[in-house]
Amino acid sequence: MKFFSLSVVILLLLAQPIHASPCQYTVNTTTFKDVQKLYERGTDNFITDSLEIRNITTADTYGSFEVYNSFDVPVSIHLTFDYGYAVFAGPRQRLTMDINMTIPEKSFQTIQIGPNKTIWARFAFYNETMKYAFQDNNETYQKYETVTIINEKCKTCLGKPCLDDGAACSTHAECGGRYCVENRCNDELACYGLDCGCPEDEIQCPANNLCVPRNALELGEEPTCSPLECKTNYSNSSTGECAISPETLEAEENARIEAANERNRVFFMFGMILIAIAILYFLMQEFQRRKQESELEKRERKRAGQ
User: Cβ contacts of residue 175 below 8 Å, gap of 6+?
Assistant: First the structure.
């Protein structure tokens, strides 16, 4: 690892840092810390609140690192850190090192442990223990200042991080946006992206907040949000109940009238046929009567001629 930021930097943060959170819905907490800062004597110009430790190197029997000063003035510090090693196959030893040093401007100091300890093995630095504090010298002075630290963290819902918009949910209380609509979180009482994902046998309400069954309600039942819930696809505007549309009623009335007219036409034709049959029957009867009378007259004339 070429560069290493000291754990002490956590204590030496710049004023008002904000830590990013992966959550969509977050809350901020504010804390105050005393931070050690370094200033130039005579001008009181701020220099820094942290130094860089770099080039950490470890081998089996030794280790080293550099403390780098990138500034135009010498910097004095008190440095502490832990390191460990084992003697051959024996138990691991852990020691603490305390060092006072002044690092020249734009330069570095090298700290090395070993390598003349040939009996050592498995040498290692405990990097998390590397800490330092600024000290005064002829060109710089240090002082502590209180800074505000803003930490951003995930908002919690039901004891867990709140769900982002669009995430699957079962209750409003799980969602950072406060609403669970058709099992997806949102920041308004509507389906996420205005798409409820309704199946084919359901319809999406005009308010984009609900899926309801399509063509399921009988006459007189009241739909939740759309006339398309009715089997007739129509609801009465005054009562809100499923009903037959005026167009359908008009069509049915026209069909009824047409059927009645058709029946009347059939009855009329049937009557005309009956009348025609009656007239034909009467004419046939009259023809037979006259024929019989003609034959009687012929027989009478024949007898009279004899």
Answer: 157, 162, 163, 165, 167, 169, 185, 186
Report helix, strand or coil for 187. Answer: coil
Q: Strands, E, within the chain: which ranges? A: 3-4, 26-40, 46-48, 52-58, 63-69, 75-87, 92-103, 107-113, 120-135, 140-154, 156-157, 160-161, 179-181, 184-186, 202-204, 211-213
Sequence-ordered list of residues with C-beta below 8 angstroms from that of 97, at least 6 positions apart, any chain: 79, 80, 81, 82, 83, 111, 113
Q: 139-164 burial by CB neighbour count: b if 16+ within 10 A, else e?
A: bbbbeeeebebeeeebeebeeebbbb
Report the distance separating Cα 172 and Cα 163, nearest Å. Answer: 10
Query: pLDDT tens digit string along 38-65?
Result: 999 999 999 999 999 999 999 888 999 9
Q: How many other C-beta atoms can be found within 10 angstroms of the C-beta atom of residue 47?
A: 19
Which tokens go with 178?
């406060």
Looking at the chain, how many residues does it have? 306
Helix (H) or strand (E) holding 74: none
What is the pLDDT averaged over residues 90-108? Answer: 93
* C-alpha atoms less than 13 angstroms from C-alpha of 272 in its C-beta half-sphere: 6
Q: Could you please report the per-residue DSSP string of 220-258?
A: TPPPSS-GGGBTTS-B-TTT--B---HHHHHHHHHHHHH
- Please check whether residue 130 is in contact with residue 165, taking contact to mean a CB–CB distance below 8 angstroms: no
- Name residues whose C-beta falls within 8 Å of residue 74's C-beta, 6 or more positions apart in sequence: 102, 103, 104, 105, 137, 139, 140
CB 33 within 8 A of CB 99: no
Average pLDDT for 90-115:
93
Q: What's the burial of 268, exposed, middle or buried (CB within 10 Å: 0-12/13-18/19+)?
A: exposed
